[in-house]
Design a protein that fits this description.
The chain is mostly beta strands. The chain is about 15% helix and about 40% strand. The chain has 3 helices and 11 strands; from the N terminus they run βββββαβββαβββα.
Length: about 200
């Protein structure tokens, strides 16, 4: 399991454009890419079928070590037209007790301009591609309210992030993605962490 690269996706996306924003300035993509202590069912050919949750602090090490290598991509870089072209620089990535949050100003490209209407319509969620490096698996599980079929469970304690970004088909429904219009012209100072958390929270 530790060497497997897997995708994890999040919930409905939205766009809230600020009044007075210039149409020539690209919005900032921001969202919650993972929710902590929230069970979800995972089912795929590589890993099988089981229940999974992410523990608080699972991304602390990768944020510190791998931030410069993490990319912001659409549909895990598998979109038929966009491919692995980056959507934005990763300007913000942080944890709080709720989960993992990220943000970056969208590049002024045709594919990003085509993406924004779908975000405005709430069609996208957030997606994370990771390598799990530490986990607590439980093979034999009794049925419960969160796991009525008694599927095997695992708690992800630590994972290395490869990329994250919007996706059409989320798995983790409690996460979000949003694009917010920037009202100030470039160049502009980086958004502060407190201001970022107020916007996504």
């Amino acid at each position: 399991m530790a060497a497997l690269v897997a995708n994890r996706n999040g919930g409905a996306a939205s766009v809230q454009a600020e009044a007075g924003a210039s149409a020539s300035i690209m919005p900032m993509l921001m969202g919650q890419a993972a929710a902590f202590d929230s069970w979800t069912e995972v089912s795929n050919r590589e890993e099988g079928r089981f229940m999974e949750r992410v523990a608080e602090g699972a991304f602390r090490a990768t944020i510190a070590k791998d931030r410069a290598a993490i990319r912001v991509l659409l549909d895990h870089g598998q979109h038929p037209h966009v491919g692995r072209l980056p959507l934005a620089p990763l300007e913000i990535i942080t944890e709080d007790p709720r989960g993992l949050f990220y943000g970056g100003t969208l590049f002024d490209t045709l594919y990003n301009r085509e993406l924004v209407p779908g975000l405005r319509a709430g069609l996208y969620g957030s997606s994370v591609r990771w390598i799990v490096t530490r986990e607590d698996p439980v093979r034999r599980v009794r049925s419960s309210a969160t796991n009525p079929e008694g599927l095997p469970e695992r708690t992800v304690r630590e994972a290395r992030l490869v990329e994250l970004g919007p996706t059409l088909f989320p798995v983790y429904r409690s996460t979000t993605a949003a694009a917010r219009a920037i009202t100030r012209p470039r160049p502009y100072p980086p958004i502060t962490l407190d201001a970022f958390m107020r916007k996504v929270g």
